[in-house]
Amino acid sequence: MSFSSLGLSAELLRAVADQGYTEPTPVQSRAIPVVLAGRDLMAAAQTGTGKTAGFTLPLLQRLLKNPLEAGRRKPVRALVLTPTRELAAQVADSVQTYGKYLPFTTAVIFGGVNINPQIDKLRRGVDIVVATPGRLLDHVQQKTIDLSKVEVLVLDEGDRMLDMGFIRDIRRILALLPQRRQNLLFSATFSEDIRKLAAGLLKNPETIDVAPRNSTVDLISQRVYQVDKGHKRELLSHLIGAGNWQQVLVFTRTKHGANRLSEQLQRDGIQSTAIHGNKTQGARTRALADFKQNRVRVLVATDIAARGLDIDQLPHVVNYELPHVPEDYVHRIGRTGRAGSSGEAVSLVCGEERGLLKDIERLLRQDLPRATAEGFKPNPNARPEQAEKSNHGAHAPRHAHKPQPGWHSRPGSRSRGPRFAASRSGNR
Ligand code: AMP
Fold first, then answer.
1. How many CA atoms lie within 13 Å of 40's alpha carbon, on the beta-carbon side?
2. Separation of alpha carbons 98 and 251, rounded Å
3. Extents of the domains making up the chain
4. DSSP assignment of 178-197, as one string?
């Protein structure tokens, strides 16, 4: 199938060609005709499937089809809600990219930055608003936005919006929209809660599920290292160095954990930065840019911060700690092996995470292959709190090996040998 057979305008086809896309992805070929026909849509599609173009292209075309009467003040005609600032920025970029030959204006609205430039932009009139719910409601309260003329609503990453507790904000926003409108709901999973939201939101929707949950997962080589909690960081440094990994996204469960790990890696001579919700928008954008442009080798992220990050062909994802929600494992490792390229996902699993690993394997309906690294075998007798203690490193027995050539092969990085602890278990 080609893009030209989908009924998109010449301007949109040109923008698509500029991007170098030759064929629509499955979500695009299914979603675009539905949206063009004006139907409501419920689509199960993860990041990496091309879903953004799947709704942005036909949305732009819809706006083109119903031109406004001349002389009327520009109202907001399309509203895209996203759970995170990063995703809002990325969707707005896509709207600009695909709409570059069309006359529409877009505003991206999220918190953590000065509201005044957003107000100025809205005052001048915009066709499309891409927003996170909280800041959008701030504008509603300040009467700096009018949503009463919205023709198309898109909820992107609906499952994550619910996970993040946005349901009340979403309901408040829905109440401000006109009754007659087109609704598009994208979600990585069709959970019970998402179905409930969809039931109240969508009218006679077309449902598409082009990304059965595990299809991405099949492309990714996955490995589990069983390791004592207190030795995870050393193992991570070892894997990065020994494998000469140059771009690694590492997931931790907490913001504090992300900061701490990033600092420890820096001390090991591995350029690293952390991204999470406590960082300012500027700091997050900088961290992401540094990572994308290979100025830092490791990006340590929490689930929420990493959600929706568009990083092409990321070769390595590491679960430094397993997520509590098994679906998050799929979201996390979906950051690698995208668009058909193969990727590698490694999980460092300590004794107390065994139950979480079981849940993930149940969801995937497969056992993940176990791997071992010499010197990092878990101590079968270690109690969780013992492992925890050595996490802080002070008393962990370390037996430094001689530095290996090429261990940290980046120029300028401190060269340090892997600190194997072959007799670690015996020392306890
Ligand atoms: P998304 O799932 O929307 O986050 O898109 C994932 C990535 O796929 C983005 O980097 C897009 O630029 C890219 N992409 C979207 N549509 C296509 C296409 N038809 N062919 C190739 N790449 C695409």
1. 16
2. 32
3. 3-209, 220-391
4. -SS-EEEEEES---HHHHHH
Sorted by sequence, the CB contacts under 8 Å of residue 212 that are 6+ apart come out as none
At 337-379, the pLDDT tens digits run 655 556 899 999 999 999 999 999 888 878 999 998 888 888 7
Distance from C-alpha of 276 to C-alpha of 69, rounded to nearest angstrom: 44
CA distances from 192 to 102, 219, 368 (A): 39, 27, 27
Check for a shared fold between 3-209 and 220-391.
Answer: yes
Q: How far is the CA of 171 from the centre of ligand 1 (A)?
A: 30
Whether 51 is in the pocket of ligand 1, judged by its Cβ within 6 Å, is yes
Atom 5 of ligand 1 has which residue's CA nearest to it? 50
Strand partners, 183: 153
Q: At what angle do helices 133-141 and 167-174 cross, to 10 degrees?
A: 40
Q: Ligand 1 within 6 A of 158 CB?
A: no
- pTM, rounded to two decimals: 0.60
Is the minimum distance from the CB of 21 to ligand 1 under 6 angstroms? yes
Topology of the domain covering 3-209: Rossmann fold (3.40.50)
Which residues partner with 42 through β-bridges? 185, 207
- Residue closest via CA to ligand 1's atom 15 equals 50
CATH 3.20.20.140: does it fit domain 220-391?
Answer: no
Best residue for ligand 1 mutational test, from 25, 184, 341 (most atoms within 8 Å of Cβ): 25
**340 pocket-lining for ligand 1 (C-beta < 6 Å):** no
Q: What is the pLDDT of residues 218-270, one digit of tens each?
A: 678 899 999 999 999 999 999 999 999 989 999 999 999 999 999 999 999 99
Q: What is the DSSP letter of 296?
A: S
Q: Kindly tell me if the per-residue pLDDT of 275 is higher than 80.
A: yes
State how far the Cα of 195 lies from the Cα of 42, in Å rounded to an integer: 9
Q: Whose CA is nearest to atom 18 of ligand 1?
A: 21
Which atom number of ligand 1 is nearest to the Cα of residue 47?
A: 2
